[in-house]
# Entry
Amino acid sequence: MGQQKVVAINGLEIQIQRGSFTAIMGPSGSGKSTLLYLLGGLDRPTSGSIVVGESALDQMDENELAAYRRQKVGFIFQSFNLVQSMTALENVEFPMWFSGTQPKYRRQRARELLKQVGLEDRLLHRPTELSGGQQQRVAIARALVNDPALILADEPTGNLDTQSGQNIMLLLSELHRNGKTILVVSHDTRMLRYATDVIYILDGRAVSEAEYRATSELSM
Amino acid sequence: MKLLDLLRMIVDNLNRRKSRVALTAVGVVIGTASVVLLISLANGMQRNTASQIGNMGDLTTIYVYPGMPMEVSARAGGGGMGAPLENPLNSDAIEQISALPGIEQIIPRADLMAGSTIKFGKLETWAAIVGLPIQDAGILGYTAKEGTTQLERGAAILGGWAAKNFYDPSLRPGQEPPPPPDLVGQQVRVVIFKYSEDGQEIRKTYTFRIAGVLTEARAEADNWLLVRMDDLVPMNEWATGQRANYKRNGYNQLIVKASSVETVVDLTKQITEMGYMAWTPQDVVQGMNSLFTIIQVIFGGIGAIALLVAAIGIANTMTMAILERTREIGLMKAIGASNRDVLSIFLGEAAGIGLVGGLGGVLLGWGGGKMLNLVLLRTLTTQAAESGGLPPTVAVYTPVWLPIFAVLFAAVIGLLSGLYPALRAATLEPVMALKYE
# Structure
């Protein structure tokens, strides 16, 4: 919030394949979350360019970015970011309010997705009545609701126990098999088992696996 | 975002925070209720007064009295000896006034210039004895409670109040007063008296047949005994001991009828400029109207202060809500809400609080007005009966536009007080908002 200028990402040049499952690995403060938010159109670069599909995000105005977030991306957060006063069903329906989907279809679609993530018996529970893993599955259902091509996950397993984290990774992997492009920011090395591509980031730059390992071991 | 969805979301959001919305809305309820109640009260006062003024006479009537000549009143110290102090209402004056465009009729009036008592059997009453050269008192806007307004020679029409006030002078305290007599078609004696040079009272009695009794109108005519001008002239000649020459010396008053309501105020001004004193009930109506406009503005202002306080309450609640819901706002943006969506939602919530408060306030103000009406009408009617006035028709009057205006106004107040918080919400940086703890 301060006025101090922080350079999170500088001189980073990467390409991510459509239909890939890309893991972005890096220590905290390396700029990996910023990269994710830039790709999701939640943040804007001060310079440089970001192209997702045909969309040049750095050229878009606020409204176009909102439309991009609405249609093209689904976000998954470390802290789930569910609305506490809404039921699981309402949380999944939430994005469809802004996309102008018919109310009848909204409910049906949300049910379908919650069933897909295995929560058909938790439709009317509020976030406080769900476990962390269940909350994250609600969030995944919410990310899928507008059928985006790109799923962006920011430490999706960071707040979960090992088993729940494993389940979430399996769920993401399944989405990948169904044709979604998945981009996961994590420092959970188990993620590498499901990823098709890995990008290592140190201090806002992409580095090779070898350099990354060398630095990580040095700092340990 | 679709309008219907937006409205539903606003209602849902307000529903989720019932107690806070209710508490914030209480401020608006009080503000709106006081606006509605106070303006209704001012309106009721105006209606009441207007209905009583309406009885004072036809709004096309101008009453003209003899006036000071312009040169005299302009000169300090007044005119010299022998100069007339007044502009008399003589035939010149009548000619001059009737030359004005839009004058329909001029009725000169003469008053009895002596003391008088009206007797009926052993009952007595008092009335101002007024002579008019007319055949029908109806042209002055008076209506008959009993009998007719037709005025023939030898007949008289009695004002409603004078007719009610017959009393028995021989009655001892404690005795039951006699009921008001049925006068129409009956002869009354008018006893007039003057004093001789050595101080002796000299009386003379005239007899009139009562043709009708006027409906009480809270007007001067309530205390009249109206006779034909040609019946009054001999009475005044006896009282003054001189031949009457009204055409030269002037009448007591001219009753001027204008052909339309619109020109009355203007005509009154023109007659005043001629050097006479002219007055019309419309002056009073207009004066009252501007007075009540001022009262309404003051009353409305008091209510507006209450509403202003309520508006600050809404702004505060919304600012707090935005702090609390920062993450929710960030999330809304992440899942594709545009800045406009966020702005609309928070503005809508603020307006919703205003609307809820406005509706409550209108109900409270309107209901309070009804209650106040019951209480006030009873008190005012008792007061009016004691002071001899007409009973009031209404104490608190809510015009149809007021509740509608008040509800909309409250909603707009809500909207305006939500403007700053909503703008803040809409322009939150999504990444910052999502990280907010």
